[in-house]
Design brief:
Number of domains: 1
Structural class: alpha+beta
Distance between the termini: 76 Å
Number of helices: 7
Shape: globular
Strand order of the largest sheet: 1-2-6-5-4-3
Order of helices and strands: HHEHHEHEEEEHH
Radius of gyration: 18 Å
Amino acid sequence: MKIHFTKIVVVLLLVLISSSSFGQSKTTEALSKKYTDAMAFFFYNNTLRMLNQKDDKGFDELIKDIEKMKLLMIKKAKDFNYKKITSDYKAEAFEEIITSRYQGKNFDVYLKESDGKTKGMIVLVNDSASLYVLDIVGRIALDKVTQLYKTIDESSDITNKIKAFSNNDHDDNKEHHKSHE
């Protein structure tokens, strides 16, 4: 049986096109382009499973309906406008569902539904120096959002990058204060 290279390419292109029909939000993509120094991580369901170092069945249950996710970490600049960001997500038909606090950070969760099913979620983790955006294709239980963030935060490789990102914020703030003394 002979498989033609062009058929494989066509099938792969169709898979890529169909999987991108509902991708990350336009607002998240715009943020990524605007804040070029932002750090971005992409996760698919299988890479999220690798974060589960403790083989926690609860975590596997938590991520089972996540198709893919983008974590975007943005250092706030002078022109940062959180209200505009939230209104841009709302303009994409994301509906604000929950607001909470966890370890000094504000969490705002937005859902996008189609035919009564959650198709996408936006989790904005906002503190004084940074904005973390979890743009999720799929869904997680709303009461488990902080657990997902905590697990990502505790993953060694990602944690090191998040801490380096956060320390740069603190170093930048110290330098900013020193230069204004």
